[in-house]
Design goal:
Layout (H helix, E strand, L loop, with lengths): L2 H8 L12 H18 L3 E2 L2 H11 L3 E6 L4 H11 L5 H5 L3 E5 L18 E6 L5 E5 L14 H17 L4 H4 L39 H16 L4 H4 L10 E3 L7 E4 L4 H4 L7 E5 L2 E2 L3 H9 L6 E9 L2 E9 L15 H9 L2 E5 L2 H6 L9 E6 L7 H5 L6 E5 L8 H11 L5 E8 L2 E8 L3
Parallel strand pairs: 1-3, 2-3
Antiparallel strand pairs: 2-4, 4-5, 6-7, 8-9, 8-10, 10-11, 12-13, 13-14, 14-15, 15-16
Length: about 450
């Protein structure tokens, strides 16, 4: 198995609704995974209280891996790559390692992470101080530009350095934990309450009892949609990727720049290829995920972030200035959560940017003048667009009077931050060379 396939598998997307594996087969795999890991005895399995107690007793830091229950290839990955990797294994032995395979009962005030990831790791002290995070994705299926096994090793090394300095660095690490969560754990959110318990049900159907990571984000968005009618930028555009600032970071390093986009906010701030960002907003960095955490906690209304940078000629202090609405430059269409967003905003339509040829066929001057309806949902709330008259192959040229949409993300952002459930939005499409007008219902 080549390295690209192995790494891609390790950070594979778990989409329950798309799985072709039967419930019983998956149930067997889940139970076998638990037996195997517990028998080997290296990883603590789904038992955070025990892990924290062991960390206090040994003085070791914790590595908590949040990951969806594995497919066959991911089991091979654990055996062949991570636990036996010559650089990673010796580092793992310096941690109390705990594997969390569901989010039931998870302390959301401590474990705050991008819920669209199927793999996330937190590196922390036994007193709950967070050293860093690992696990990043900017595409639905491709990971190689964001993470690597070497990058995981670098993050582990960074956390060990911070652990050796602790508690002298406690103040610098304080910003790595956010405000208390509105709900203490996932099963207490209104949309999940009474459907799930605080633990997995190994006495019954363990798969059906599991709360997946993406369900936390779904529950947060559903609550806002019901309570406020609209979504805010932080919720709709979570965990911004450094690429939207013009920064491409080396997945093998903690925070070293491979590219700086010309004309970007990063270039304007003085960042250069080869820079190693040692701290951002005062927080030391262990990986790209740490950068995303800081961006997640940064106001969408514009901000200035001070970066400490190491270069061949010594340390530098740079300022990254972000304008109002900077988050909206990111792309959310790849996220698992976009399935629910499409229900709310487009009645179940999947939209794609136009190719130049598609634009020409629709009589448009530029591809950014419209969006192609790639798919129209057929069932339940995802069939709202179908019922309103939309067809696959339509080209949306105006949405609520807005033109030049360009990206599905832009349409989703506008609809979910400006329109409430129950609103009827006028939409103009091109079909067979003619314009058609439809009214699209916004949904909860």
């Amino acid at each position: 198995m080549n390295l690209a396939r192995i790494i891609g598998c390790y950070f594979c997307v778990w989409l329950a609704f798309a799985s072709s594996v039967t419930a019983q087969t998956r149930e067997e795999k889940v139970r076998n995974d638990r037996r195997k890991v517990e028998a080997e005895g290296f990883w603590i399995y789904n038992d955070l209280p025990r892990a924290f107690a062991q960390a206090r007793e040994t003085g070791k830091p914790l590595l908590v891996v949040l990951r969806c229950l594995p497919c066959t290839e991911c089991v091979k990955l654990d055996d062949e790559l991570i636990d036996k990797h010559p650089r990673v294994r010796p580092l793992l032995e310096k941690f109390v390692c705990v594997r969390v395979v569901s989010t039931n009962g998870l302390d959301l005030s401590l474990f705050q992470f991008d819920t669209d990831q199927s793999f996330a790791a937190l590196l922390l002290n036994a007193d709950r101080t967070i050293y860093g995070r690992f696990g990043t994705r900017s595409h639905r299926t491709e990971w190689l530009g964001d993470v690597s096994v070497e990058g995981l090793a670098a993050a582990l090394e960074g956390a060990l350095e911070l652990h050796r300095e602790y508690p002298a660095n406690r103040e610098r690490l304080a910003g790595k934990q956010g405000a208390a969560s509105e709900f203490a754990s996932p099963e207490k959110y209104p949309s999940l309450k009474d459907k799930y318990g605080a633990t997995l049900n190994y006495e019954g159907n363990v798969v059906q009892s599991c709360i997946h990571c993406h369900q936390i984000g779904d529950a947060q968005r559903d609550l806002l949609r019901e309570r406020d009618g609209i979504l805010n930028e932080k919720t709709l555009f979570p965990y911004p990727h450094p690429k939207l600032l013009g920064l491409t970071l080396d997945p093998d390093q903690r925070a070293t720049l491979l590219r700086v986009e010309a004309g970007s906010w990063a270039e304007q701030g003085g960042f250069q290829v080869g820079d190693r960002i040692t701290a951002l907003r005062g927080q030391p960095l262990t990986s790209i995920a740490d950068v995303q955490w800081i961006l997640q906690e940064t106001s969408p209304a514009g901000a200035s972030l001070v970066a400490e940078v190491s270069r061949d000629d010594g340390p530098h202090s740079l300022t990254l200035v972000l304008p109002n609405g900077w988050r909206q430059r990111g792309d959310i269409s790849w996220r698992a959560s976009s399935w629910g967003l499409r229900r709310m905003a487009t009645g179940g339509m999947l939209l794609e940017s136009l190719s130049r040829d598609d634009a020409r066929k629709a009589g448009l001057s530029e591809p950014a003048d419209g969006l192609l309806v790639k798919y129209v949902g057929q069932f339940g709330p995802h069939a709202a667009a179908k019922k309103a008259g939309f067809l696959a192959g339509d080209v949306i040229v105006a949405f609520d009077g807005r033109t030049g949409l360009g990206r599905e993300t832009d349409l989703l952002g506008y609809a979910l931050m400006q329109r409430k459930p129950g609103d009827l939005v006028p939409v103009t499409v091109m079909r067979d060379g003619r314009k058609h007008e439809f009214m699209l219902p916004m949904q909860p």
